[in-house]
Write a structure and sequence with these properties.
mainly beta; Immunoglobulin-like; 3 domains; 6-stranded mixed sheet; binds CU-O-CU linkage; binds copper (II) ion
């Protein structure tokens, strides 16, 4: 293993030192006791991966991709593509700094790989066929082995025919916990949001329904799932805070969450805790993104509350003739409501990278009409991924990306392997600052971010996480070359 520290750019090293100081401060992170009713989360508790390594610093698991019949609730069962027979795949828990070893077996009828979305892995562990590793063919195995450097919620999914395979059910959460994060809320839920489409016999929808129009829109499954269940119920004591770690693992669907008008206190995002907490009425989680939030649902004893996915305009087809979807029900226990609890003062020192000498990289996303084939293809700077040349970067280089969306659909852009910091039009960090690996570029909108390429050379992908768009051309590579920038 290489050293993870000495290659860090200066500003990250400073941030790491501050983080160490904060972690060491006395009295930090006294974990509070549970305030939730017994078995409050049993309606949607995730299966957990079994760590077979006694070393407390190593999480070593077996993971098999295979087809399985799964119950999704409401008397529906689907013959899904799964990890270890569960939908979503098992929750993998690690602590920041742990080594994670995954002995992966492919028992699917197609080749696959596992990509560790958001984790700063070496390129050999990134799960991209031909770049990182050969495809894992039916009956074959591959061992993933990497260190989880950053606390946060991550997730895993295939990178072979990803729109189809993710749509079929292949995804799971990887939670990297920092026991000293200072949040101190005992009642925690990892919430994997997705959707799936199948017929009355439990047979999955064909991955190319709707043809070219389906690709341009981004296919959504009919059934919205929370931890693999249709409208599951959690129990809560009115007023008691819960910490939800949310990932949107859907192939295309946006989740614009609305808790019946009650608020979400956002404390973190893709790359762990953010600069400071921020309270919101609605919470947008686009495909690939994660959100770390505190909710304190209130309601009468015995009453319920519904978490809904409200309508959100991500392009033509997303709001027309559509209605909000119910995601999960919160059922209040008979315990007397608690008065509003003070929320922890969550903050994190984030030192924005210096922009001095940064390289500017401009990208324009387009969807030209292609008269000849009658098919549409998404392009980045005039080329779909199969015709594109890689963007270039050097180890240690700071880049400012400006991504302009000239299409009438939104595109949540994901960069493999690196976190970036979103900037406004004056290139000032957007506050509160949060490390991201996936960021939505709204329809006809522009995003900007700064990224520092650390010591892991390789061919790193970026793509829209509406996986149909990625397959339809909206994908590219950054060739990160060893050696200092001039
Ligand atoms: Cu979730 Cu190529 O990524
Ligand atoms: Cu897109």
């Amino acid at each position: 293993m290489y050293s993870e520290y000495i290659f860090m750019p200066m500003q990250w090293r400073a941030a790491a030192c501050v983080a160490l100081l904060l972690a060491a401060r006395p009295g930090a992170a006294a974990e509070s006791a549970s305030l939730a009713p017994a078995n409050w989360d049993q309606g949607l508790r995730l299966a957990e991966a079994h760590d077979r390594n006694p070393d407390p610093k190593i999480v070593e698991i077996d993971l098999t991709a295979r087809i399985a019949d799964v119950e999704v609730g409401n008397n529906h069962s689907v013959r899904a593509w799964t990890y270890d027979g569960s939908l979503p795949g098992p929750l993998i828990r690690a602590h920041v700094g742990d080594r994670v070893i995954v002995h992966f077996t492919n028992d699917l009828p197609q080749p696959t790989t596992v990509h560790w979305h958001g984790v700063r892995v070496p390129i050999e562990m990134d799960g991209v066929p031909d770049v990182s590793q050969p495809e894992v063919k039916t009956g074959e195995t591959f061992t993933y082995d990497f260190t989880v450097r950053d606390a946060g919620l991550y997730w895993y999914h295939p990178h072979v025919m990803s729109a189809a395979q993710v749509g079929f059910g292949l995804y799971g959460a990887l939670l990297v916990e920092d026991p000293d994060d200072g949040v101190g809320i005992a009642d925690q839920l990892t919430l994997v949001l997705s959707d799936i489409g199948f017929d009355s016999h439990g047979v999955l929808d064909s991955p190319d329904t709707g043809g070219s129009a389906g690709t341009v829109f981004g296919r959504e499954g009919l059934y919205v799932l929370a931890n693999g269940k249709i409208l599951p119920t959690i129990r809560a004591r009115s007023g008691a805070p819960q910490r939800w770690r949310i990932v949107n693992a859907a192939r295309s669907r946006f989740f614009y969450l609305d808790l019946d008008g009650q608020t979400f206190t956002v404390i973190g995002s893709d790359g762990g805790l953010q600069e400071r907490a921020e309270t919101k009425d609605t919470l947008l989680v686009t495909p690939g993104e994660r959100m770390d939030v505190i909710v304190s649902p209130t309601g009468p004893a015995g009453g319920t509350l519904t978490l809904q996915a409200a309508l959100y305009n991500r392009g033509y087809g997303s709001v027309e003739n559509r209605v909000p979807e119910n995601v999960l029900t919160i059922a209040f226990s008979d315990d007397p409501p608690l008065p509003k609890q003070p929320l922890p003062d969550v903050h994190r020192e984030i030192v924005p990278p210096s922009l001095a000498g940064a390289t500017h990289v401009d990208m324009v996303l387009t969807l030209p009409p292609l008269a000849a084939t009658g098919k549409s293809e998404f392009q980045v700077n005039g080329a779909p991924f199969w015709k594109a040349r890689p963007f270039l970067a050097k180890v240690g280089e700071t880049q400012i990306w400006t991504v302009k969306n000239d299409t009438k659909w939104a595109h949540p852009i994901h960069l493999h392997g690196f976190f970036f910091l979103p900037l406004d039009e004056h290139l000032q960090p957007i506050r509160p600052m949060a490390w991201k690996d996936t960021l939505d570029v709204p329809m006809e909108g522009t995003i900007r971010f700064v990224v520092v390429f650390d010591e892991r050379p390789g061919m790193w992908m970026f793509h829209c996480h509406i996986l149909d768009h990625a397959d339809g051309g909206l994908m590219g590579h950054v060739h990160l070359q060893p050696g200092a920038p001039e």
